[in-house]
Amino acid sequence: MPQLTWLITGCTSGLGEAFVRGIIARGDKVIATTRGDVSRISTLAEAGAKTFSLDVTAPRSEIDAVVQNILKENTIDVLVNNAGYVEAGLAEEVTYENYVNQFETNFFGVVKTTQALLPHFREKKSGTVVFLGSSGGLAGEPGAGPYCATKHALEGWNDVLRLETAHLGIRPIIFELGFFRTKIFNKDNLRFRTTNFSDNDPIRELVGGMVQQVDGNQPGDPAKAVSIMVDVVKGEGVAEGKAFPNRLPLGPDCLATLRKHRVNDLLIANEWEEVIRSTNFDP
What we know:
Layout: E1 5-8, H1 14-25, E2 29-34, H2 42-47, E3 50-53, H3 60-71, E4 78-81, E5 87-89, H4 96-124, E6 127-134, H5 145-165, E7 170-177, E8 191-193, H6 201-214, H7 222-234, E9 247-250, H8 252-271, H9 273-276
Parallel strand pairs: 1-2, 1-4, 2-3, 4-6, 5-8, 6-7, 7-9
Helix pairs in contact: 1-7, 3-4, 4-5
């Protein structure tokens, strides 16, 4: 496949950094972005990436300006919407403002960045838009209401974008990741909101214990996930000869969540079919 140029958001650490290094190792070009000073990703520049400051929570006009600046000297083939974080807490206890903050980064930031690139993809009649989803976007996880809500929103937007842009040669895809060993659950990155509602103590303690147990012990290898995602975009390696999927779960834990959720939906559809079909006007 010809050499591609990738634009990736949120490259300071974790999957973003792994993406940059993995893509460079494959011989493609990378434009790595981070919020704030690009010195935060200076090691990626040393590895061969071009670096830009891009805050996905900025107004659309500012994001457009950064993207246009990038496009002056680069043709983008793939956008990877990686920037994100976990706004955690029990559904009752997380404030409206915290929900908004979560959506500003994990969903609206994705929408604005994607919209900024779509005219470029339309003009060249090609382009791949990668969304990083989660098992939390397939089924809820206790203590992660805001995060799960944004990932569910991405699932729907990915489907809509595919239907609306297929005739333009644009390919959206969402990779649904299970637990991979990044710093997303690190205390410096995880924002857990709490109150003094004693009724919620048991579930709050359960969530807190789970986070402590999972952080640093996630089973998934980010480098392996990135290698597969790059293969899928390029149609190489494990993806050679396979149809381009609209979504793909990664990680045995995510696969188990997907199967359980879909089987439960099917059981409900079968048990309640007669009732479900009874809602039309009578002939």
